[in-house]
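Can you please make up a protein's amino acid sequence together with its fold in token form to help me picture the idea?
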Amino acid sequence: MTDTAAATPVPGTEGFERREIDLFGVKTVYFEAGQGPTVVYFHGGSTFHGFRWALPLAKRFRVICPHHPGFGASDDPRIGAMEHYVLHYLDFFDALKLGQVHLAGASMGGRLAAEFAIGHSDRLKSLVLCSPAGLDIPEHTGVNPMGMSPAELVEHLVEDLAVMSPYTPPVVPEAVFAKRLRREGMAAGKAMMSPTGLDHWLHRIAVPTLLVWGEKDKVLPVGRAKAWAEKLPKAEVSIIPGVGHATFDESPESVRIVGDFMAAH
């Protein structure tokens, strides 16, 4: 395994150091900033808007934001099911010798973080789930972003489109943006179609858990928070008013809440 820095800029990662690690033949790119207790963040089904929202956390923590295999700058390897991503991140944690961390995940990354925590709570200090996917809640189905045009997708992620303007056309060439979304949409689709046992196993998450949800979430509506909270043994819920699915991007207050929660554990 090797760990090397690379200089290629990635939108939305300014302020982070880009690193690259080879995990048994899988090139995995991650972004790191700050010092202190370690926070690992699992992104959702797209990486185009980066991790700039997490820089305030880097004033208090060592923040590590990897690109999942099949996303962003990481390779497209043998990984296709959510359980494969869990195993990949066990290798990642071992290779970086992380010990216990605060783990956060949003949307698809929230499902991944929950599935990781079900089997590996011993590796965690706390868990933050932001609008997580993975539970079947028919009365709060929301909107499936698969098949949306790039413009429609962005419109469904946020209430304030200006938040995403630095990462979308015309700032980013339209063809480049669309190609990236297609690639990541295929990877996300494979992962999200894989079976989930969250309904039956959330009770095994043994660490303090914070559920964060945007009040205006169109993709996974805020009404889903209640079902999650009822299944998690140590859950707190924070509803963020006036923002959509990309809660951390739209709400600095949500990031402060997450930092305070982690610092308390």
